[in-house]
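Below is how a single chain appears once it has passed through the pipeline. First comes the sequence as given, then the structure the pipeline wrote out for it. We keep one example in the README because the format questions we get most often are answered faster by looking than by reading.
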Amino acid sequence: MKKCLLLLALIPLIGFSQTKNVISTFRIFAKPEKSLELEKALAAHAQKYHTGDWKWRVFEIQSGPDAGGFHVTEGPTSWTANDTRGNLGAEHTNDWAKNVQPLTTGAGSSGYSVFREDLSTTQLTEFTEKISINHLYPKQGQGHKVEARLKKFKKVWEASGQTIAVYQVHMSGPPQYTVVTRHKNGWKEKETGYLKPMKERWDAIYGEGSYEEWLNTTTSVESSWGEMLILRPELSSK
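Resulting structure:
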């Protein structure tokens, strides 16, 4: 009986420790004429040192201001796991410093993001090879309004069968939400006619004229931009 009570007491703690909704990301760019060397070094590093919870998924950025660079995601894991990760060791650090970093243009961007299941239409680990990312930057103090906006979009995405993963960037520059469209059927999802226009889909859920009304009252986003990326599995962890 005592053992059963102890097990029941531990259940909340076990659940808390297993919340793997955190990913870390970074971007790097090859020096001119060093792209193939960087790919080889990046693949070797990922496949030797980054496994399990620290697995890497390496994307090549196809469009936008960072086109030509590599976007690397690590995880998912938990904040608790990050607490206990510790130093990755001299061998890991030396490999990066000697074999990878010299082939890059220098320090790129890096940060942490938390997966928002309540705003998404897919599970965190239901990945695809082709993705589009929209970066949304809320106005000061308007994050709650952006979340309300995304919750309304979620209903439209679900009705349209779109696979959308939403992340909230955490302590990594300006407040930001990243809306990742996971293209299960590839870029053909972008073809005209593949989906009905957003106005049509929005009005079908919220009523005729609601989309125009919503546009006229939307002031919570300071700026936004988008990009397309393709997974490079040969450069990623195995």
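The radius of gyration is 20 Å.

See the next section for the split statistics.
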